[in-house]
């Protein structure tokens, strides 16, 4: 079990923001972390019914024209892929700063492990800068689930600074002295924060239980005390996972069912007066800015739904290839999109609103008519994580409500076509937009 505060921090690194004082039990938080990690490695696609035997899959390096494991193990969403491409054009090898996000660090370490596979199963030692925690690891085998999904079989052992095991000492010594048939230079030393190691250990300990007991690959004599497990490529959580693990329809402090709201701004809900009082210092700036605000209701439709001759496949920077494939499959099957999930409950959140214009640029422009005579006929609304990502066609909603929001956008927005607003979800297909109290300009 990982400490409660550490679990919350690890979940945050994966993009899962739970209420700061959540009353979810330690066991439930631990379970949520496990499920999120399984989702990040798309476990059910590779191991739908554990336990499994890796030998049913062909060896990676014996298949015809295999990719490097490093290349195959890499996973990105569209935002990350775009950033990588732009950085490479500028001569920047890694655009993601190290040691600031445990989940991103884990994914980069997995690519290092992939590199070790390509270099002949080179052993690795992962430890933090203070050398307070370390993991000895060696890749035993790589199997091919498909041409872009390696199954990396490893043995590992974890030690703390004040409890270096005899097994780890003998294992390291065998490579330092060359008695294992390798030179000391063949061992990779990887700097990994304690938080990253916690995530990696959780993955390894979850996956070790999914191997059949009869699977016993050959290992070195110094690895008899090491634990056998496997690793899969790990990528950013997709849209459905982000929604599932972030949804909070209750108290903004603890997540319990909300029974009352702030009487000054009506923008935040609480379970009781205790949580409301505890949250006041944090909530006060927002409360003061929204107090007495003018709100306008809007109804909306999903971008994926055809409307007035407009067809669009919703694509955003947080999407993975799997997300897009799911939407394409639903469109091909004629499945009507359901309402976007409400991850914000009845608490105010920031949305970006854009009105269609023939002069607009960016990904959203492709969703709007390019005919200048149709300018101002659609609003496009989304939040930062794109858990709500919808359109508001003027001809399908109350025209006065539509015009009220569009007119404020044209007066206050950037170039009269886009801007940030406070919003509150009021129904499956409805939200309120604040027309005279505005958040700071957002960088997303």
TrEMBL record:
GO terms for molecular function: zinc ion binding. Keywords: Metal-binding, Zinc, Zinc-finger. The keyword Transcription does not apply. InterPro entries: Znf_MYND. PROSITE patterns: ZF_MYND_1, ZF_MYND_2. Residues 251-287 form the MYND-type domain. This is MYND-type domain-containing protein. It comes from Mycena sanguinolenta.
